[in-house]
What does this fold into?
Amino acid sequence: PPGAWISLSSTAPSAQATTRPRFASAASTVPGAPAGWAALHERYATKSLQELFAPAIELCRGYALSPDNAPILNTCTDLFAHAQDPVLRRWAEGFNPEGRTFRAGDRFAWPDMGQTLRRLAESHCRDLYEGELAARIDAYSRESGGLLRGEDLAAYAPRWVAPVHTTFRGCEVWELPPNGQGMTALLALNL
It folds into this structure.
């Protein structure tokens, strides 16, 4: 429907890569979702961000892996733990520090993510763009040869945009305008 929609599109770092990176810090962009959550919260929420984030924080304390999740964690651990790229090895250290082989039903806990979500909730997501999290992202990006900097994070703001639409089989279908992929979906409906 018409009205203002929010674009949570990430943005590229201000520094430009000389090659097209596939993995690692050089491929990182400024994450748009947390700033978008905060903007949506400001405009529409009736509960605090702490209340809204509480279920996700609780899940980070541990939950039973499904038959689908366990093999994915195992595959990624195998792939990334032995990668030559230190950034990929760091992924394995973060998701599976003990190098476990998971089975369906095993408990998976991610306390570091829980702490990150807590910081986001307490700072109305600003910590990711201007606080300690931003400083840690900047330091890690520099250490690993990435292009993302604290200034890129601080400069990010989600945009309220007018949606675009098409009619498909008598129904109006609405999407975000470019720079997202919504236009592609709308074009595909009219092929």
The longest helix spans residues 69-81. The beta strands are 5-7, 63-64, 107-108, 159-161, 164-168, 171-175. The first strand starts at residue 5 and ends at 7. DSSP finds nine helices and six strands in the chain.
